[in-house]
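Supplementary Methods S3. Input chains for the assembly prediction are listed below.
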Amino acid sequence: MRRPLNRREFLRTAAAVGGTAVVPTLLKLRPAWAQGKKVPVGSLLDKTGGINIYGLPAIAGTEYAVAEINAKGGLLGKQLELIQYDTQSDIANFPKFAKKLILEDQVAVIHGGITSASRESFRPVIDEYKQLYFYNIIYEGGVCDKYVFVTGETPTQQMGPIAKYALKKYGTKAYTVAADYNFGHISWKWWDIFWRNGGGLEPVAGGKKGQHVGKVEFIPLDVTDFNATINRIQEAKPDVLMSFLVGGAHINFYRQFAAAGLKNKIPIVSTTFGFGNEHIVLDAKEVEGLVACYPYFDELDNAQNRTFKAAMKKKMGDPNYYIGDAGAESYNGWHFWAKGVQKAGSFEREAVTKALESGIEWDSPMGRVKMDPASHHTIFTMHLAAVNNKRGWNVIESFPNIPPTETMQLCDLIKNPNQHTQFQPK
Amino acid sequence: MKRIASTETLAALLLLVPWAFKPYTANVLAVYMIYGILALSLTLIWGYAGIMSFGQTAFFGIGAYAYGAIGLNLINRTQQTHAAVLGGLVVAAFLAAVVGYFMFYGRISDVYASIITLALTLVLFAFAVSTGGDEWVIGVARFGGFNGMFGQGESSQNIANFQIPPVTVWLPGMAQPFEFKINRESAAGYFLVLGMSVVMYLTARWLLRARLGRVAVGIRENEARVASLGYDTRFYKFALFTIAGAIAGLAGILFAAWGRFVNPDRFGLGFASSTVVYVLLGGRTSLLGGFVGAAIVGYLTSYLAEIAPFGTIPGDATPWARFLMEAGRRIVREQGAVLVGIVLALEDGVTPPLSRLLTRYRRWAWWLLLPAVVFYFGQRVACLQADVCLF
Amino acid sequence: MSLDTAAIVVLEILNSITILVLLALGLALIFGMMRIVNLAQGEFFTAGAFTVLTAVRFAHLPLWVGMLLAPLVVAGIGIAIERLIIRRLYGRPLDVMLATWGVSLLLIGLITVIFGAVTQGIPFALGNFQVGRYSYPEYRIVMTTVAAGLMLGVYVLFRYTAFGRRARATIANPEMASAAGINTPRMFMLTFGLGAGLAGAAGAIMAPIVGVVPTMGVLYIARAFITVVVGGPVVLVGTLSSASALGFIEALISRFSLFQIETAGHCAPPPCAINIGGSAFFGQIALLIFAILLLRLLPQGISGFWRQRR
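Predicted structure tokens for the full assembly:
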């Protein structure tokens, strides 16, 4: 039914429509790139939304790495033009912006994706358009894709050291809680193998072997009340608790666990605690003594890390800024790519891939890192550390050259280059 | 000229898009149209029958997952997806029918019905995210929990072996199966979505002219009166709800085929609220409203993701300017602010006033606006296809 | 099942019911009594938690002071929202729903801007007690006590005070109440504020146990509404009976596995089986399904049905 338009309505409508169209243009902040003889490179990370606790440090590491490369003259004489899209913690944005980076911006490489779900949502796009892609976050292992390189650690790189340490120090009975999604399920499978073998994919000679008590619990990502879980843990009476919990809601587990008086009765080990800087959020009396294993801690003391930390603190304008593993891995990812480009003398994907498959290693803020040619994954020095009473970590022991054996076992991209999939344990 | 046939013009212009713009634009417009179809289903059930359903995204998601599950299993054997499309539609419509029966034949009030649809969406979300384990498979289609649905290889070790197929047809007489995709070579997927949008729009228009639609509008205005006239209001509400559910399911199928991916976020509260915003912004009583709303919000979100966060506020801006820019950026981003503002200020979204505007000034529109737009499009096509560029 | 396990199950049921009561009480006033579908109720909850956080972390006040402040602050926010937005939309229930949804998104955005999206913690010093071989946190008993206290307070307020009488009159029949000289707009405003304040108190009480994050309300809003809808129009009886029924089901299904379904995946060791029950997820599903069934049988809610029978 059409009734005549009166002036007030017209003005209101025009304001609404005009506002939504014009205001963004008025707020058109100068885009971060300009035209010129630059090589566009892409980044897909969550600057806003719930995942941004991992996204913000990754973005910081990315921006600093690209700026550092450009400051030293760029790559092959050309400056890099970093094109970033904020995926807003919404998985639907990843395939969309991946296509934009590939079809419109025509970037030489894409770095990004945080949760495994986000990565898998656009890996098919990567495969369809044959785009070079780096994934720089801890994950459950098993990605075997010719176009993909991974600089994040896999659980088995953490589980060997953790299992051996726990068996020696705490005992043989373990109870496991995990986040209820692919990462949690697959981590559990690997942990099941490692723990029963005493710290390896195959039974470890001469060491103690672990056993599981109770039933592994998979907890959805939005659960915040762990009452029943904590009671079941007490019922099972384990020597040690293994946690694969992830995300903001699961932080409450540690708090409720301590509130039930269990912090000093049952020690916790984890492959995920700390990656989201949970040790800063929680109180020392809630988590002191929790043991984790990562390739990077801010507390590591080497020349590259000292320079890296100073520069990052300056960039973020905060002398107490804690970088964390996510920031360091993104930084490393970009430098791995840069070294591949330099070795290949070209930005073309096939040339860079071949260069990266020739075995590149260098001294990073994490220490020595090496790109494994066949699996496209990274070999690190892993460090075992315990939460201290100053919202930081005390490094206990370091293990050089820990390879991602579970992926290397199943994935050889030099012999079988046509793979674009993800594996998990049998 | 009574109407300037704006809808037809719009459709014609949309047809030209793949030749006028780079493939990414067609890709993005396709998903706006898919969201528009979803919003259309909400407009039908809400704007015209007065039942606010939070559950349209539930049927969207069910349609997508069903298409994925069936498609993944059959594509290697039959090289076609017609069974998957049909299956998705049937599952979505069936679920809508079951829920509709419960609600309307149980004489639950409209407000409670809305809450039940909300609960449905939440239940499906909680279910979908818990399907990460190995045991959640249908044939070779692995639910995947948060990671989304993929096809497995023969051994379950290979968990992300292939993705949901695009809509594929292999009619007798064709040498190869034909896939509806959107990339540098083909815009078939885009035309499929455009075609479906037109079909759904026309279907909705036809429905509203038919008895079902007119009774539904009557129910919205005064259910008791319609019932006293002898119509079984329960049946009409039920029927419209089921049809709206099927349309939402179709949107879900197209989405799964477009992105070749579906995951539990489709059942999430965020997506459900976005759909409501599209309809509100575009206009509850206009069938095109959902499309308009989806396009506006989509454009805004993209703009905010691409330029705003990483654009540098000029370093020489004064602290006040800087604060205003930051605040402006955040307000534009907050769909909540948009929602409240629209409900209070504009009674019915932007499309009805816009179309009244166009009708009022139709002479200007016909002689000035339309030629300008046609000229712009023509120029772009010439520039992109034949390298004849004016600017 | 051993005695201490049985005792723990009873405590878990009590905990479930307590949480539902806390979530539903404020909404029972606003929706159950005033018929306002307030989708921003979850954010009142969140605001209460953040008030305590601010008081403890930034103003360095003792915990109990923060907990007393929270309902006051949130009641203020509720009153502001009632005046600015809800007042214009009386008689348009669906528009109220949408406007409050918008307010909810807006509040989440605001809280995120001020506090950031990271989950924060509120430390507290209570200990735990032994139940056989289990230790159970004392704080949860405190929560139950507070929930009972809030319910008692609402009862006394509405039954025995002048304000309570006026409020009940206004809601039962606004025109009549207005004719009798009661300032009805003010009554609506205050009742809404009270409902908001109760939600704020609930958020404050639960904050030390759950994570304080801007999106925390979203997790609870559905259960709050379900509990109130199933409860029916009588505030206290409805809330209590509904919370008891639903909390009982949720706690039980969270703890005990009902049965298994075998599926065709590849599992080691085979066969693949899906466990129905025994986890928090199934507890929530059971709650939702049970609520839908109850509503189908008693469309007026438990207290509505009971009221009709009398």
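Chain C is about 70% helix and 5% strand. Chain C touches chain B through 43 residues (CB under 8 Å).
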